[in-house]
Amino acid sequence: MCPTFELEAEHWGRGRRYVAGLDEAGRGAWAGPLVAAAVVLPDQPVACAGLLRWVRDSKQLAPDQRALAYDEVVAVARAIGLAVIPVELIDAIGVGQANRLALRLAAENLGVRPDYCLVDYFKVPRLALPQEGIVRGDATCLSIAAASIVAKCTRDRIMIELDSHRPGFGFANHKGYGTAEHRAALAELGVGPDHRRSFAPIHALVAT
User: Fold this and answer.
1) Is residue 107 part of a domain?
2) Strand partners, 4
3) Domain of residue 179, CATH code
């Protein structure tokens, strides 16, 4: 399934020029921050059509493809907003609330006020903007797919940088997710300051 800009075009036709797609990356990771992105694409079908070759749900792309798609989105987008929620806050308020906070802050950090927001899966509480949640939005809606790529690439770069400060955990490889490599590193090195202690697998290690 490939994303289209049909939803965006409907809103452009109603005079809503700034339609933002919102998505996050890192919700299920055991370590590192949660990152959300908001992307406003140009209200010009020709410009958006050029993205159709590159942009997919970030999970469907290889790293080199995702990097190319990221560059294309950044070159074309009218506005991009980011939010990074650190481990400490994720543990303090829970990953669900952290996810909602990240999406709201990403929209607020756009630098332009969106006329409408298209959000992957669910509406964002306390977001004072017209919005709708789109099931599988990252696979069907171009602006949400673009946001998923920006969020994923941004978070990957954070985890690669973190790897240089926390050698041994393999963050550059698994990006904090619960892979066999990560499990082995935890067994050898123990839980580090970048791990989410509120997550059951990490909490179990801390408790032993």
Assistant:
1) yes
2) 141
3) 3.30.420.10
Q: Indicate the pTM of the whole model.
A: 0.96
Q: Identify the three-state secondary structure at position 2.
A: coil
Q: Is residue 20 part of a domain?
A: yes
Nearest to 34 by CA among 91, 108, 114, 75: 91
Q: Is residue 102 part of a domain?
A: yes
Number of domains making up the chain: 1
pLDDT in tens, 107-145: 999 999 999 999 999 999 999 999 999 999 999 999 999
Question: Residue 194 sits in which domain range?
Answer: 6-207
Q: pLDDT digits over 45-90, tens only?
A: 888 888 888 777 567 788 898 999 999 999 999 999 999 999 999 9
Asked if 142 and 2 touch (Cβ cutoff 8 Å), the reply is no
